[in-house]
Amino acid sequence: MKKQIDKDYHLHIFHAKQCDPKKCTGKKMARFDLARIFDKVQKIPRGSILLDPMAKQALSPADKNETNITVLDCSWETVEEVFPHLMRLHLQHRALPYLVATNPVNFGRPFKLTSVEAFAAALYILGNKKQAENILSKFNWGHVFLDMNKEPLEDYSKAKDSNEIIKIQSEYM
Question: Under 8 Å CB-to-CB from 161, ≥6 apart: which residues?
Answer without folding.
Answer: 60, 61, 62
